[in-house]
Amino acid sequence: MAISKDNLNTPKSHYASQIFLRILAIATTLSAACLMITNKQATLIFGIQVVARYSYSPAFKFYAFANIAAFALSVLSLIAVFLMERKPLNSTFYFCLFLHDLTVTVLLMAGLGAAMAIAYVGKFGNSHSGWMQICDHFGKFCNRVIASSVVGFLGLFVYLILTIVSANQSRKIPPSI
């Protein structure tokens, strides 16, 4: 059986894609938060033990908590989508879902922006400010920041797709009075 465009644009396929993307968003935001929160490395520098952990940087803390908030909101939106199947569809629900997805997208974008700024300074330093690069001393720590960021960008991409899908759906359904 060939898959046509009409088969992909049914309420069931839209419902299935919403569930799949929201489960993927849950997995990516939880993974990104766990990778960052459990990130810690101790090393000796000039005979002194120095510890690097995410909680020493406000930007990394914001990133981790932004992913935790996105995870919690993703679970709530998944529940809402499950409830969506039981009720008749209306544009107000999809518009609220669009606003939710847009808010989480912006939250993830802000967290990633903050984390990437600090990660860049950690990797390359800043000679004008006198900040030295630390990734040559804390390789494991920096690699986990990179892994968390990659997973975080995947979560951002999933939420970007969800935002577009929700906006498109809120536009298609006639308003209920």
Description:
This protein is mainly alpha-helical. Helices cover 71% and strands 7% of the residues. A two-stranded antiparallel ribbon has the order 1-2.
Helix content: over 70%
Largest sheet: 2 strands, antiparallel
Number of strands: 2
Inertia-based shape: elongated
Count of discrete alpha- or pi-helical segments spanning 4 or more residues: 5
Keywords:
single chain; 177 residues; mainly alpha; two-stranded antiparallel ribbon; elongated
List the helices and strands and how they pair.
Layout: H1 5-8, H2 11-37, E1 40-45, E2 48-53, H3 58-84, H4 91-124, H5 139-172
Antiparallel strand pairs: 1-2
Question: How is this structure best summarized?
Answer:
This protein has 177 residues and is mostly helical. The protein has helices at residues 5-8, 11-37, 58-84, 91-124, 139-172; strands at 40-45, 48-53.
